[in-house]
UniProtKB/TrEMBL annotation:
Matching SUPFAM superfamilies: Putative cyclase (SSF102198)
Organism per entry: Streptomyces bohaiensis
The protein's name in its UniProt record: Cyclase family protein
Signal peptide: none
Gene3D superfamilies, A to Z: Putative cyclase (3.50.30.50)
Source superkingdom: Bacteria
């Protein structure tokens, strides 16, 4: 007698139940809104309610006017490099990945200019094993706790220099060229530390995107996920030729 499939063993449903049973879903996304922190050169969001049930319309429809790099958002290679991969051409296979969390929050608490080192990578691998190729590596700094205060996020000194954490060239080279990670993410506004962006230096972001990788900026709640063992789902709309867009990012993990 041939096997008759049921709703309990069809396709990947069984694997889904096994994967999600007892798992925690952590939203790594800030809800965006007008007046929120953003890169100073970009305009603020504007909203208009086109149809409104409160006015007697049969439904509610809002018009959103915003730049692609708004709130928790994705940067594809085309954000910095003309002719490079745009949002609609990032493979969907890259949107569900192992999540690695590199934590430098303790250093950032006393030094807002802190960046990760190769020693941080070595320490992580001593605890958890090798960083997997094809993973998403997120930099945990604690900076998202400053949201939604624009001045706290930018953290300028009296001379106008921004003091915020960021990535380092040595760590990004290791992750992209040696490990072969698929994407990176961070809590602050920029890939580069504030002392670099204050003088117009965005070389680290240019490097990441120039290597054909994508990144997520302004992640939230990285303190709620473990350093290793989680999965991340990062998704966004599909504008043709898009150079950036707000993203929804969720981690699936066991209790830390």
């Amino acid at each position: 007698m041939s096997h008759v499939s049921t709703a309990t063993d069809t396709g990947l449903w069984c694997a889904y139940r096994q994967l999600t049973a007892g798992a925690v879903h952590t939203d790594l996304t800030h809800a965006f809104h007008p007046g929120q922190p953003h890169f100073p050169a970009l305009p603020d969001e504007q909203r208009e309610t086109v149809f409104d049930m409160a006015r007697g319309d049969g439904f509610t429809v809002d018009r959103y006017t915003l730049v692609g790099q708004w709130g928790t958002h994705v940067d594809p290679p085309s954000h910095f490099h003309q002719g490079a991969t745009t949002l609609d051409r990032i493979p969907v296979e890259e949107m569900f990945l192992p999540l690695v969390v590199l934590d430098i929050g303790a250093r950032v608490a006393t030094d807002p200019d802190a960046t990760p080192t190769l020693d941080d990578i070595a320490d992580w691998e001593d605890r958890h094993g090798a960083i997997p190729a094809g993973s998403f590596v997120a930099l945990r700094t604690g900076w998202s706790s400053r949201w939604p205060d624009q001045q706290a996020m930018v953290n300028r000194d009296p001379a106008g220099v921004s003091h915020t954490p960021g990535w380092s060239a040595e760590v990004l080279r290791h992750l992209l060229e040696t490990v072969g990670v698929t994407a990176v993410g961070h809590e602050q506004l920029d890939t580069d530390p504030g002392i670099a962006t204050s003088v117009g230096d965005f070389s680290l972001e240019s490097y990441v995107l120039g290597r054909g990788r994508w990144q997520i900026e302004l992640l939230a709640h990285l303190d709620r996920v473990p350093e290793a063992g989680a999965l991340v789902l990062a998704s966004w709309p599909k504008p043709r030729g898009g150079s950036g867009f707000p993203a929804r990012v969720v981690a699936l993990h066991r209790e830390p």
